[in-house]
Structure formats: C-alpha cells, structure tokens
Automatic annotation (TrEMBL):
Entry annotated with the keyword Transcription: yes
Keyword terms: DNA-binding, Transcription, Transcription regulation
Start and end residues of each HTH lysR-type domain: 1-59
One Pfam family named in its UniProt record: LysR_substrate
Name by which UniProt lists this protein: LysR family transcriptional regulator
Organism of this sequence: Halocynthiibacter halioticoli
Amino acid sequence: MDRLTEMEAFATVVDQGGFTDAAKKMGISKSAVSKHVSSLEARLGARLLNRTTRRVSPTEIGLAYYDRARRVLNDAGEADALVTSMQSAPSGLLRISVATDFGVNHLSPVLGEFLSDFPEITVNMVLNNRYVELISEGFDMAIRIGELEDSTLRARKLTETTKRMVASPKYFEEFGRPAKIDDLNDHKLLHYTNQSNGAVWKITAPSGEKRQVRTSGWLSVNDGQSLLNAAVSGLGIAYLPSYLYANALNDGLIEEAMPDLPVEKQGIYAVYPPGRFTQPKVRAFIDFLVNSFAEKGPDAW
C-alpha cells in the first residue's frame, strides 16, 4: 500500500478519535481506513493504536510516530499547495506598506502598468513613515530602505540608492562647508527620525575607515521630503538618499557638503512574511519591481 496514505489514515484516526469519523473525513470506507492502519502497523512491526469497543487512542509508540507523521503530512500538503499556487494566476488584494516619499515618487508611477499586467490583483498601498508589523497589521509586504533590522521576515533586494550629505548654498555661505568628518559636530544637522539610528550618521572616510557621527541635530522629522525641504531652506545639512535629493541637486537648490567622501550605498528591499512559498500576488509584484527598477538604471536612484 501507499506509505503516505497509510500515514494519513493513522493520523486522521488519531485526530478524529476513531475509525468511523476518520473514514468520513477521508471520504473512504471504515474498512479501508482500518486496512491502511493495519498495513502500517504490520510494516513497522509495532502496535500504534489501542482499540477498545468504546474508543481508539494512540499507544506510546503511536503518539511518537503521530508527531512525526503529522509533520510529514503537513510538508506534503505545503508542497502540493506550492505547485498549485505557482500554476495559478496571481489574484486577490495586495496590501503594501511603503514610506510616503518613496511610494509617491517611485511606486505610484508604475502601479498602472502592474495592474494592467495583472488585472486579477487589486492593490492597497499604505503610505506611512513608521515601521509596520506586517503580520499583525495585515500587510502582504513592505518596501524598506537601508539596513534591515534582525527579523524573521524574508527579503529580496530590488535595487540600491546612494546617500549623500547635502545643504543649500545659502547654508554654506552662512556657516561654511565641513572640511573633514569631525567638522560635522560644529554644524546644524537634520535627522530622519524613522530610522532606528536616526541620530547616528554612518560615514566612510576617504581612507575607507567607517566612522559614526553622533549628534542630537538641530531638526528631526519623520518624513524624507520634509527633511529635503528643510535643507533647501537653509536650515542645515541632511543625509539623504539620491532618489530624494537628485532633482534639487540638478536644479542647484542644494550642494554636496563633502563631495570627496566615498559614496554610501543603501539597499532597497521588498520584505514579506516567512513561509515555504511566496503568495503568487506577492511574487508577481516583487518580480515586476525588480524588472521595472532595472530598466530605469542605477542613475534613477
């Protein structure tokens, strides 16, 4: 007999507490269930069930075997679900969490193309500037930038952005330009509070040495665009990703504070709940973003 079927029959008898209910659950006859269990016991050379006229219960050996058998059956079920999901068309509601500035500037413009490619998917994109708990808050995925915190979440790198210190020409005229990293301690710094290390700037010196600048800063905000606006207004030096400052830099509204420093790079990631397989709608959107961002090229970030 089929080993997996024998295992399923035995586990179902334990789950249901008897052969009659197990037969109903499996959609086969009671005698067929009994035959599967008897065949399993004969093959293993052990009695797995205590049978009385009133009830059926697992023996000590049977209980130990049940725990392993249930894991095997669950794995088999997930394997079947994986194949089914990979062959089915992506569909359903896709809930995405993304930082406001990145969502407005880079996700919103491409959503139309994605929805056209996958008409069975509907998207709920939530723009916010806080760290969301994907599972407890009901999100399918999130877009996160920079160092990922230790997590059980799965992640896939979509692209990367560069990060530089910038300020307005007006600011440099009034306060001067820092010549070395230590000079930053004497300047007005603008911090992005949404990052866990918002008050700490990690900088690479020209020598390649990794440095950290710690200061409370003159202004802290939880929105990247607001931080850029503050830098453009001459309020201080901001440490921003290029997808935020690129246009302002090209328009001469801001300048690099220390152009001789090595360029810092940050990854842009799709993160999603753990599991043995990824939902088709999530996989479809991540694949779409990877291709879309690759077409734009590295200069877009």
